[in-house]
Amino acid sequence: MHGIEEVQLTSKKLVDGDLKVFFSLVSLILIASSPKLTVHLTGLAIFSLLSFHAARMNYFRIIRPSLFFILPGMFAVCLTAGISAAMATGLRCLASVSVLTYLISTTTIPEFFASLKRLRLPYFVAETATLIYRVIQILMDEASRMEVAASSKHGFASRKAFLRTVSLLSYSLFIRAMKRAEIVEFAMESRCYSGKMPVHCQKSRGWIIAIACLSILAIAWWFL
């Protein structure tokens, strides 16, 4: 998670602020709802370039897990519905994933939900999702440290040791998670947390690029 956040904070953003979220969501709707291959190819090209410009080589690291699901799915569709259906389905998935990759590469979770709040998303939904995201980070950090400690003591050397170690780690992780949750709660209260998470408002920029990309997608939708 920290690696993704580092990419998000250091990425080069041609489109920024709330605009990048709205731009990505509108593009995703256009691409996912269109049956035309020209729209899928156009979307794939546009957002692959934008993602690579933003994240450089990290782009391939972010999109790689998606390919492990898309490619076997294309193979299954090919066996059941033919090559043309597999290519159409795979291309639509790749184009949609390229939009999401761009969004992931440039937008943190707090930024994303802060933008959705301006679209009248219920406040408690955005707040709960943001807190869950932070708690997951805490759990991942604790689990990683405990796994390293157990490995250094040969806790996974055999099947019996593996089962014993996993059971002990699960119990210890639960206890530590509760303690960390209390620490986080005290820290938030000491900072006068009133039930509303502060959000950073970034000025939207890159309107020309966003409008140009959406115009190209619209042209591909209606005329190609």
From TrEMBL:
It is a multi-pass membrane protein. One of its GO terms (cellular component) is ATP-binding cassette (ABC) transporter complex. InterPro entries: ABC/ECF_trnsptr_transmembrane, Cobalt_transport_CbiQ. The keyword Metal-binding does not apply. The chain crosses the membrane at residues 67-88, 94-114, 206-223. GO terms for biological process: cobalt ion transport. It is found in: Membrane. Its main location: membrane. Coiled coil: none annotated. Keywords: Membrane, Transmembrane, Transmembrane helix. This is ABC-type transporter, integral membrane subunit. It comes from Archaeoglobus veneficus (strain DSM 11195 / SNP6). The lineage of its organism: Archaea, Methanobacteriati, Methanobacteriota, Archaeoglobi, Archaeoglobales.
